[in-house]
Amino acid sequence: MKHFKAGNYISQGSYKSFQPSLINRQWELDSMEVLKLLSQADRELGRLDMYSNYIPNIELFISMHVLKEATQSSKIEGVQTKVDEAILDKEDIPLDKRDDWVEVQNYIKAMESAIIELEKLPFSSRLIRETHKVLLQGVRGEKKQPGEFRKSQNWIGGATINDALFIPPVHTSVPELVSDIEKFIHNEEIYFPELLKIALVHYQFETVHPFLDGNGRVGRLLIPLYLVNEGILKKPILYLSDFMENHRKLYYENLMNVREKNDINQWFKFFLVGIIETAKKGISTFDDILQLQKQNDIKIHSIGSRAANAQKITNYLYQKPVINAEKVSKVSGLSMPSSYKLIETMEKMEILKEVTGGQRGRMYVFEDYLKLFR
Questions:
Q1: Which domains occur in the chain, in start order?
Q2: pLDDT tens, residue by residue, 339-353
Q3: N or C, where is the chain less crowded by C-beta within 10 Å?
């Protein structure tokens, strides 16, 4: 991008903080590689969005996409909860893993509440702060000003500020820098391709690092929120954390190269490749879900009078692919003896698989569906 200057390092005595340039201005693209990738990313997103029109009951499947995003985005921050654990209830999680489990659940709550808030709030610093507040509620970062921009210096990497890998701008400039991001998002007088706009916003947000904790997760949440807010996607079905986790070293290197070398084009290329690969993977997953749904519908219709209750249970499993007899009874309205019979039938159909191996407290998973998100 022509004339791009990321910012300057400013001496703060014993260390230097990075002061980013404001981004709310007209930009001029000069890379054919970026434009080519942009065109491809737009096409793949269009294909992915088409699925939200043609998949019946797409809301059933979105929760698992969000859950996978929550585990991957949290994993980048060192949280070690797997998808198989994230679907369980808190009491089924070992005590030593519960803190990590709660962080993943908070990410899910933050995403869900932000999508709801978008219906009445603009994409804004207020929305970002409210999302951050949900994210840090009752977890390890709860004493780090949830929902408030930082009022002190933070740093990335290193045990102390003196050996940090990167030191964001001084806290006094955070309100102006976040306000600038907000103005850039809503500036209709500036033409800038939407995907590059959110790529630049994500970079700038991570550079400003406006919170004392949770910046990475909030920064990644902004991407699907923006795509939904701008009508690029009808539903929040594209999440980049899996791509960023799989290319974590490159992700951080590309962000640093913008700050150190003003190389915004390389960051754009990385971001757009992430959009392309993630959209393709999303399309493939939806194809697999439709295939699985078709196979299970055939199995369910073959069991006669129990088919309606088996369908109720399967629909529940698309949202949360783990269940026990009590939940089967509650979802279907059947007595406990009838629920056990239905479970037995669904095990024979290979829809359910028992995973505890015990006689009591048995848990069953929708294994073939869960595989698609591991």
A1: 7-285 (1.10.3290.10), 307-371 (1.10.10.10)
A2: 999 999 999 999 999
A3: C
